[in-house]
Amino acid sequence: MTAVPTRRERQRQATFDEIVDVSRLLLRNGEDVSVRAVAQEMGLTPPALYRYVDSHAELMMLVARSIFEDVVAAMTVARDEQAPDDPAAQVVAASAAFRAWALRNRIEFQMVFASGASMEMDEAARAKAAQTPVQITSLADCLPPDSGVHLFAAFFSEIFGRLWLRYQFDIPTDDELDPELLEILRSEIKPTEVTDGLGSPTPGMVWMFERAWARLYGTVTLEVFGHVHPGMISTGALFTATMLDIGADLNITDEWPRLQVVARAEAERTPPRPEQPS
Q1: Which alpha helices (DSSP H) does 44-148 contain, by range?
Q2: Which of 62, 112, 138, 237 has an alpha carbon 20 to 30 Å from 34's alpha carbon atom?
């Protein structure tokens, strides 16, 4: 039986929630998200706020986790509106929901998806990063686990695994992969909460997952930062083409006429907000 939180615990949790809410409001308004600024907005002193967070880095991790939870919640709603035995419709709906969320929340998207790896790190982490060669990497490796990034990665990997079971798309064997890439991919079979969802976490499966994610993420990032013609964003033409490319690899091209209806319905349900200040 779960213990009922005490009054003190409830008050502390309420303060944590307020810290995150205030931080995200400052972020969306393009203002400083320092410990001092958050404390001032809450009517506290910085030392009082430090009773709840140990550092600015921890504050940013709390904010990042809250943002990831919001993204996953939006994608979950979209996924669950599709039939549970239709992973193709689920992945398209969830991808469209991710894009819609990103276009509505450009500044928060930039924080956790475009600049998360540059978040404040402790001295040991900086030293390790400086000694690590640049590699092909997944989103899950760019942020600490506490940021909530694995919630996001695990969400998509679970659907991806069911897609493979349903459509049996081609997965490259170890012999078909470049040896250097193969070594990198073998190191990517982690953490288990992400790769377990793939159902068959071979290097080839991870490679297919990474390629699909790179296309979706790359397209959404270009749209969020306005690096493509506005008409391609408003019509969803680039996103549609990207999903078709991904679908070809996943053996669901023949399903696209009905899946495009799913994507359009999701886009119409959650239209982008006006451009936010940068």
Answers
A1: 46-49, 56-80, 87-104, 106-109, 123-131
A2: 138
Angle between helices 35-42 and 56-80 (to 10 degrees): 70
Q: Are 93 and 82 in contact (CB under 8 A)?
A: yes
Helix axes 149-167, 56-80, angle to 10 degrees: 30
Domain ranges of the chain: 1-53, 63-269
Cα 210 to Cα 208: distance, rounded to the nearest angstrom: 5
Instruction: Please indicate whether residue 239 or residue 268 has the higher confidence score (pLDDT).
Output: 239
Backbone region of residue 248 per phi and psi (left: phi > 0; alpha: psi in -120 to 50; beta: other values): alpha
Pick one of 2.60.40, 1.10.260, 1.10.3470, 1.10.10 as the CATH number of 1-53. 1.10.10
pLDDT at 185 over 60: yes
**Distance in angstroms (rounded) separating the CA atoms of residues 19 and 109:** 19
pTM: 0.82
- What is the CATH architecture assignment of 63-269? Orthogonal Bundle (1.10)
Mean pLDDT of all residues belonging to the chain: 83
Chain segment 90-133, per-residue pLDDT in tens:
999 999 999 999 999 999 999 888 764 434 434 443 343 333 33
Helices (H) and strands (E) in the chain, counts: 14, 0
- List all residues 6 or more positions away from 40 whose beta carbon is below 8 Å from its beta carbon: none
Lowest mean pLDDT of 88-97, 129-138, 204-213, 260-269, name the range: 129-138
Residue identified by tokens 């969803």 is 236
